[in-house]
Design goal:
- The protein contains four helices and no strands.
- It has 98 residues and is an all-alpha fold.
- α1 runs antiparallel to α2 and α3 runs antiparallel to α4.
- The protein is globular.
Length: 98
């Protein structure tokens, strides 16, 4: 895959998440989340190089968007929480030490 494709996926991922919180109406919170998003962009790009999971994440994004469009904010929030938790578990959880 060309690096431009990875960059485009990374940007699309960042914009999807940004679209979810931009409507909160709190400019201070949106600015803080923008900064966090910018700081974590490199982490996501590196993780995807090691373990490409963008197809799975795209399916998760679709489910989140479908729930939001259907007027089911609690389900959208639950799916978003699970989406983030799964990303962390896949990429940053250490195996249990016996």
């Amino acid at each position: 895959m060309a690096s431009a494709d990875r960059a485009a996926r990374s940007l699309a991922n960042r914009e999807f998440h940004r679209a979810l919180y931009l409507g909160c109406g709190n400019e201070l919170l949106a600015g803080i989340l923008d900064g966090l998003r910018d700081q974590t962009a490199l982490v996501t790009a590196i993780v995807w190089t090691r373990s490409p999971s963008w197809d799975q994440e795209a399916r998760e994004h679709r489910a989140i968007l479908d729930a939001a469009v259907a007027g089911r904010p609690a389900l959208a929030a639950d799916l978003l929480h699970q989406h983030i938790a799964d990303f962390v578990a896949r990429n940053f959880s250490r195996p249990a030490v016996a």
